[in-house]
Amino acid sequence: MREPELVPDSQHHGLVSLLPRPLRDYAMLARFDRPIGWWLLFWPCAWGVLLAGGEDRWELLAWLLLGAIAMRGAGCVYNDIVDADLDRQVARTAARPVASGRVSKGAAWTWTIALCLVGLVVLLQLRGPAQLVALGSLALVAAYPFMKRLTWWPQAWLGLVFTWGALVGWIEIRSDRLDVLAALYAGAICWCIGYDTIYAVQDLEDDALVGVRSSARRLGSRVRQGVLAFYALAIALWALAFWLLRPEWVALAALLPVTLHLGFQALTLDPADGENALTRFRSNRDAGLVMALACWVVGNAGLV
Length: 304
Description:
Strand content: under 5%
Helix content: over 70%
CATH class: Mainly Alpha
Order of helices and strands: HHHHHHHHHHHHHHHHHH
Distance between the termini: 61 Å
Radius of gyration: 19 Å
Number of helices: 18
CATH superfamily: UbiA prenyltransferase
């Protein structure tokens, strides 16, 4: 069988490329060739832990990172099973293992279950309340692949799903100050809408041809302004969370680096250049780290 063309956002030249071909297909199915996804899933988990005052819970952060890798992989496999017919019609996704027929749907379901079992091991490391919160995300995850068929804003649904870890991380550490948690989570959702709108810019033409809806298509020529607005709202909500926990101006100053980072992304975004969009999307790994440092600073001094 012919070696498939790599999708533009693949980092296939890494360790995944050293795997035998059959194993490589499963690794690519779980997006192990694109680690950006698990970082974007993990960082809200870290924010919840660190802002809640769990700065010494390094073992918890390690477990949550493992869970992010496994469950992001499971979610991607599930998404590819559901979207196989659509993926065949989009240039960027036509070479995916299920869409191309290299991996059967039955085998893909087996791989999904295996990844979920890893997630189960991680779940069992959490306290009971955090376990219940984590399980609460499953219905949202199951519905996500269908949102692009139902709404122009599937990125908003992804925001609910992909930043759920903020709730899990916080509840694992403490169960009070839910006002702080609500502001943190709402800001994370806006951040996700912003960066996934940037990601969707790559598929504008193909999505229009096959009828897939996205925030990038809905915003049209105002994509840059839309991303900037969602990022600004994210910063405002995070500022509210920090202020509620620690009502001092120094807490707000901790947000300056991530504010500058997201502002640069939005202002330099070129919707006509897919490589430009991909670079800015990927840079959210670093934005997540900078935000985690801000949460560590404020949470360490703000535990009450």
